[in-house]
């Protein structure tokens, strides 16, 4: 993207006023997106954004500047701006020699979406629309969206890191609205992976659309959800986001070091049921939160956070790692070149257990089976959370029976982890977009089917 001699020159310029650390991050991102609303193309956009971010750190002070000017003069101006913002007066440190450039290209077997005609992408959306409407006359509105991106970045720093990487992502989704005597209900499906257009070789578009539409139709006959403390069974496609939000953010080192996490100071202590092993893993093949190197140039890794209920580690970026004299865990991520990196999750998931999903359901005399969770709110300092159940069913006498109207799950992350009393041997990861401090990054959220023996449900019927 830029030559190594210019990279080194920029880093030296960034440290010309002194500092402990300097970094250059250069990015080029090409995107395409299209959306369809009731068979009409509502939005179509494409473009390429390029730029660089320069970071200088001195003690706990960070100077940061970004620019869309990738000329030598533009980069050096940004380096000087970052240097002045760091406000330091130490001697200029000697930078380590840049390592031989590590290049992680896209797998040549992947079919670059940028080479596919936009009309073919729009045809996929029209196929989704037609298939969803074929589910029945109750379907009154259908929306579908498609997006793909090719991201190239280079990151180098004064510690000698020199990495260049290419990342590809493709996403398609559908939402269907059904109308009945009880009002309107919705269903949606999303598929998103770090794959190219080959994602559609194994994806049954028609079944994806019918699944969303049939979910919306089924919810028209839903009864009010019970309220109060009840056992809850979360399936693999529905519950991963709960553990991402209610537990994962509290295991990010920046929250921990600020003591704004309920998990601060608890390494080596039991924080969950012995059935719980929680990992953050940026190496899972093709998943939405997967990459070879993070946005600070550190190799992606598989990090065990909770082992058999015991807290064993947190997630680290370079800044938090330097403060505690430990290595980054490959969790330094940023939304774009115009943003500072911070500790972020990748693919966060609970490991499977030994029971079958059928055994867990049969062993639950009364409770709620959750297939899909919606948005929610979490307090990382306490672990308290509220999540919406967008698809749920009643469990009676060990069988899944009636669909339930949307309601809330209300609880506390550590308490939920402690109350997991059954874990199945199935497993699923679903894609998501994680927001933190104004930045959004792609992540994966995964789990097996599991049971929480008691969670508060904010329904409208008595438990």
Task: Outline the structure in words.
- This protein is α+β, with helices and mostly antiparallel strands and 463 residues long.
- It has helices at residues 4-14, 72-85, 118-133, 205-219, 240-248, 253-257, 318-323, 357-362, 413-418; strands at 21-37, 40-58, 61-67, 102-104, 139-157, 162-180, 183-193, 226-234, 278-281, 302-307, 310-311, 332-333, 342-343, 347-350, 366-378, 384-396, 399-404, 407-412, 420-423, 428-436, 439-447, 450-458, 461-462.
- The chain folds into 2 domains: 4-219, PmbA/TldD fold; 226-462, no CATH class.
- Strands 1, 2, 3, 4, 5, 6 and 7 form a 7-stranded mixed sheet that branches. Strands 11-10-9-14-21-20 form a 6-stranded mixed sheet, covered by helices on one side.
- Helix 1 (4-14) packs parallel to helix 2 (72-85) and helix 3 runs parallel beside helix 4 (205-219).
- The chain is globular, with a radius of gyration of 24 Å.
- Residues 22-86 form the Metalloprotease TldD/E N-terminal domain.
Class inferred from helices and paired strands: alpha+beta
| pLDDT < 50 runs, ≥5 residues | none
Helix content range? 10-25%
**Please, how many helices?**
9
Distance between the termini: 61 Å
GO cellular component, one term: cytosol
Organism: Acidithrix ferrooxidans
Family: Belongs to the peptidase U62 family.
GO molecular function: metallopeptidase activity
Q: Can you lay out the helices and strands and say which pair or pack?
A:
Elements lengths: L3 H11 L6 E17 L2 E19 L2 E7 L4 H14 L16 E3 L13 H16 L5 E19 L4 E19 L2 E11 L11 H15 L6 E9 L5 H9 L4 H5 L20 E4 L20 E6 L2 E2 L6 H6 L8 E2 L8 E2 L3 E4 L6 H6 L3 E13 L5 E13 L2 E6 L2 E6 H6 L1 E4 L4 E9 L2 E9 L2 E9 L2 E2 L1
Parallel strand pairs: 4-6, 8-15, 8-23, 14-21
Antiparallel strand pairs: 1-2, 1-5, 2-3, 5-6, 6-7, 8-22, 9-10, 9-14, 10-11, 12-13, 15-16, 16-17, 16-18, 18-22, 19-22, 20-21
Helix pairs in contact: 1-2, 3-4
